[in-house]
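My main concern about presentation is that the manuscript never shows what a single data entry looks like. For the editor and my fellow referees, an illustration may be useful. For illustration, here is how one protein appears when written out as sequence plus structure tokens:

***
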Amino acid sequence: MINVTMTDETLWQAVREGSETAFEALYRRYFQVLFSYGKRIHQDEDAVNDAIQDLFVDIWRSRRSLSQAQSVRFYLIRSLRRKIHRSLKPDSLHGEEWENVQEAVLPTEESPESLFTHAEDTLIQSEKLNVWLSQLPPRQNEALLLRYYHNFEYSEIADLLHIKEQTARNLVQKALQILRKLAISLIIIALQLFF
């Protein structure tokens, strides 16, 4: 019996043993995560959706020969990244826009007016962050996303991007430096407007 509290590793093992229910549960658990990540490296939603479908078809077809994944999330993201990159021309990755990331986790006790105001503020902040992130070079953008959105270790980022671990650290640090400079500039401009 498959339930929503099963670990990724348990689901993965059940898929390897041929459980269609576990396969469907894994797909449902990771589709949105994979789609969101895929949109960050390729803007064509249909192409990203196709790549995810192909990935899961490949998993099902080769389920008996799959090894136990140490991190199912890492395996899926790495596999999707590979599929998308194989489908693209080498120079088409530059200048890709990053999808606007929004989180709408709101307390249930708040009034409708408060919820609306909070949602509007969140959208404005999200749009500003998206503008800032769009100013980063694509590799820095991707490294930052992998580190802070997907919580990957630097060694995993290095493996995904086919770079050295120190280079992964450098990409993230450079991205953070750029974002800090942008934030400081915004604060200075705001202070000049108000004083």
Remarks:
- The chain has eight helices and no strands.
- Confidence is low (pLDDT under 50) at residues 90-111.
- The domain at 1-96 is CATH 1.10.1740.10 (Rna Polymerase Sigma Factor; Chain: A).
- The longest helix spans residues 165-194.
